[in-house]
Design goal:
By secondary structure, the protein is mostly helical. The chain contains seven helices and no strands. Helix 1 crosses helix 2, helix 3 packs across helix 6 and helix 4 packs antiparallel against helix 6. This is PMD domain-containing protein.
Length: 137
């Protein structure tokens, strides 16, 4: 795997800060951060793992931890944020033609997470720690 998931952490952090304290729901910076997460590298990294959960075990321990963080972000935090902040949903829809992509993507993540948790129950604790982190924002 050539993509380093750590490389998009600054964009994700900026996006989360913008969602929680939005000066304007459609600022250029927020949109750029969101579209960066939707780029081939950003989204396909997670998509590749969700389509082939066994590849998760090929990642280094640090990347597995971070991957679970991204799963928590997309599966737990983002849908919750969309419900909490109405301005986020139109923003997400701007970046995709398929307006059901978030629901479909979350369904694939749920299935993948169950397989990952089956590989090692320790990952459940790591995942919930990420969820608690996002809930604290």
């Amino acid at each position: 795997m050539h993509f380093d998931p750590f490389s998009i952490l600054p964009a994700a952090q900026n996006l989360m800060e913008s969602i929680l304290q939005p000066p304007d729901a459609f600022t250029t910076e927020v949109f750029q951060d969101w579209t960066l997460l939707m780029t081939l590298d950003g989204m396909n990294f997670i998509k590749d793992i969700s389509e082939n959960p066994a590849s998760f075990m090929q990642l280094s321990p640090a990347h597995r931890n971070l991957c679970l963080g991204w799963f928590a972000f997309f599966y737990d935090y983002l849908p919750h944020t969309v419900d909490l902040y109405p301005g986020v949903k139109p923003f997400i829809l701007l970046s995709r033609e398929n307006h059901n992509f978030l629901t479909e993507f979350c369904q694939s993540l749920r299935q993948c997470l169950q397989e990952i948790f089956g590989m090692d129950p320790h990952y459940i604790t790591v995942y919930h720690t990420w969820c608690q982190f996002y809930s604290s924002l």
